[in-house]
Amino acid sequence: MSDLTLDPRLEADTLPVTELGLCQVRLMNDARFPWLVLVPRRPGVTEVYQLSREDQATLWREATALGEGLMKTLDGDKLNLATLGNMVPQLHLHVIVRFEEDAAWPAPVWGQGRAEPYDADGQARRRDEILAIIEGLDLGEA
């Protein structure tokens, strides 16, 4: 992984997966939801508009391609893409596959129950699944 310094909360709450052209791909450590966090490797950026136009396009391309791959693989009911940053100012984008039967449906996942951390096997399975999805993505220029 790159030498990008992560906000301590992102570091504590997520697990590293890989890097794309712009973003670190991190897995939220909550096995209740297929939930990724994309962190652009641009120091000091807190808002999308602070990225160059090219980086904005790349962020959106990476998020939507990864979200589409997850939705198809997991047969999700809804894809949630969000940048909030109220508690973690470092720019990051949530990519969450939702199911009508998940623990928080239809509410947002934030503040719903307690996170259920992945065990080692569950983390490895989810990571392998994400890497397989990424292998099949076309993230080239539009």
UniProtKB/TrEMBL annotation:
InterPro entries reported for this sequence: HIT-like, HIT-like_sf, HIT_Hint
Gene3D superfamilies per record: HIT-like
Entries under Pfam families matching the protein: HIT
Highest taxon above the source species: Bacteria
Annotated GO MF terms: catalytic activity
Domain HIT residue range list: 36-105
Stated name of the protein: Histidine triad (HIT) protein
UniProt source species: Bisbaumannia pacifica
